[in-house]
Structures are given as structure tokens and as C-alpha cells.
Amino acid sequence: MPELPEVEVVRRGLDAHIVGATIRAVEVLHPRATRRHEPGPRDLAAQLTGQTVTGVRRRGKYLWLLVEPADLAVVVHLGMSGQMLVQPPTVPHEKHLRIRTVLDGGAELRFVDQRTFGGWALAPLVDVDGDRLPEPVAHIARDPMDPRFDRDAVVAVLRSKHTEIKRALLDQTVVSGIGNIYADEALWRARIHGTRRTDTVSGPKLRAVLDAAREVMADALAQGGTSFDALYVNVNGESGYFARSLHSYGRDGDPCDRCGTRIVRERFMNRSSYFCPVCQRKR
User: Fold this and answer.
1) What whole-number distance in Å separates Cα of residue 41 and Cα of residue 26?
2) Residues 44, 31: contact at Cβ < 8 Å?
3) N or C, which end of the chain is more exposed by having fewer CB within 10 Å?
4) C-alpha distances in angstroms, 201 versus 34, 77, 141, 186?
């Protein structure tokens, strides 16, 4: 699933290309693409037609479009393979095109999703701690790149828990935006093993982990995000290049960039964790 840098790359692209555009028509080409919108695809298309896109927002890994005058959010679930592409109408339809939106001016906003885990849904906006968020996103915590992110408050929450630090980093109600890739990378940078219990890690060490998460995601964002295949692309269909700069994730058997020890892969929550057994010793 795309993590914060990948979603932010998409958000910036949409913000540059579709804000101010009016939606002339919406065509839902696969029912699963609107399964989270309970009234169904016809209702979604009818409500969006004639609306103007006034903003593109993100919190953590969650993305949404703001539309007026309806004052609604189009919550976009990218899933494992969702893509938001801005295309001229002359470009042939993509093989896995699920939703086609015609904008005034001629461009099309296309939702392409090979695995059909993603989709669109309309949601009302609610006030949460000074922000207006779509109702389904209201429970999501701020991310480390949010200007109002309170690092010390998150550290206090982490120290109050008795759970593995990597598991806590993946809990989007504690800190959002961090997925499997950037959790492993942040823990490598902070020299902490992911199985350490949060209540056994000092405050300064926890702050170092959160700072490392912010730094590694900023570095990834500068390179367009992390792409391992053609499924993650920006709105122009281009891949990110941060995979070339990863220190731990996906590098099992490779030498650690810091000490030369081979990176180890272990099973974790039906996925994998990657770490250096010397720099990140288990306790």
C-alpha cells in the first residue's frame, strides 16, 4: 500500500492539475471501485457531476478531494495498486481503468486499479481538532510531516503502551503515514530493533525514531516516492526512485550500509521486517 511520500506525490500532482476544474461527467466502469460508497455508483456519479474541485488534501496515507458547492469529500482509497492519472481524452483507456471523470477544459481524471482493492467514496466533512476531515478519516492521527504534529505527545502515548515499537509505528491512530517500508527505514536510522517494547525505550530514543521517520519520508518525497513495480506512479504515470536509497527494507542478504553485516528478513504481522542484526540488536 502506498505510504505517506507516495500519497503526497499524488496529492501534489492532483493539486497542480485539477483544482478549480468542474466535473462534467463521471463513468464508473467497475462496481468494486465504489463499494465503499453505500448508495452505489450511480449516486456517486450523480452527486459529483457539476461539482468543482476546490482542494486536494491528505492525512497520513489517506487522500481526498474537496468538492463544492456540495461541501463533500471524495475519499480516495488507493489500496495496493490504485493510480490517479490526469490524461488528455485522446490517450487510450488504461486496461484497468475503473472510474473516468471528465473535467471542463477536456482533461480526464482516471482511477486505475489492477487489483481492485481501492476505490472512491463520498463522505461528509467533520471538524476535528481545528481541521475539517472526511468522517472516515476523523480517527486518523497526525503524521510526522504535519506542521501541527506533536512529537512529545506521541512519545507519551508510546511510552504508555506495552507493545512492539514497529507495531506502534504502524498504528495509524497513534501516528499516521508510516507503513512497513518507512517503519523499517526509520528504525534502521535510529538503530532500534522493531520488537523492542515501547515502554522500555527512553523518551530521547523514541523522539529519535519519530525524527528518523520524518526525515526518511522527506527524503523519499524528494525522489518521488518508492516504486518497486509499475503499480505505483504519480499523476503523469511516472515512478519514484527512492527504492535505490533504501538501507534496510527489501535488502535481505545485502551488506548493511553502516557496518557491513548482512541485512536479515523476519516475518512480521503477515509481512516482513528487515534489519541489521548488529546495528539493531534484539533485547
Assistant:
1) 9
2) no
3) C
4) 43, 34, 21, 15
Q: What is the 3-state secondary structure (H, E, C) of 31-78?
A: HHHHCCCCCCHHHHHHHHCCCEEEEEEEECCEEEEEEECCCEEEEEEC
| 10 and 133 share one domain | yes
What is the predicted pLDDT for the residue at 105?
87
222-280 tens-digit pLDDT: 988 886 555 566 777 777 778 888 999 999 999 999 999 999 999 998 889 999 999 99
**Residue 22 burial (C-beta neighbours within 10 Å; 0-12, 13-18, 19+):** middle
In a domain, 277, yes or no: no
Same-domain pairing of 171 and 115? no
Q: Do the Cβ atoms of 35 and 75 come closer than 8 Å? A: no
Cell of 88: 488528455
What the block records as the C-alpha cell of 185 is 527505514
Q: Which amino acid is at 163?
A: T
pLDDT the model gives residue 230 = 58
Q: Are 261 and 271 in contact (CB under 8 A)?
A: no
Gap between the Cα atoms of 39 and 36, Å rounded: 9
Q: Is there a single domain that holds both residue 95 and residue 179? A: no
Rounded to two decimals, the pTM is: 0.93
How far is 165 from 143, CA to CA, in rounded Å? 16
Both ends of the chain: CA-CA distance in Å?
30
Do the Cβ atoms of 109 and 103 come closer than 8 Å? yes
Q: Tell me the catalytic residues.
A: 2-3, 61, 271
What parts of the chain have a pLDDT lower than 70? 227-233
Is 10 part of a structural domain of the chain?
yes
Q: Where are the alpha helices (DSSP H) in 126-277?
A: 151-159, 165-169, 180-190, 203-222
Q: What pLDDT does residue 74 have?
A: 98
175/93 same-domain check: no
Cell of 204: 530521547
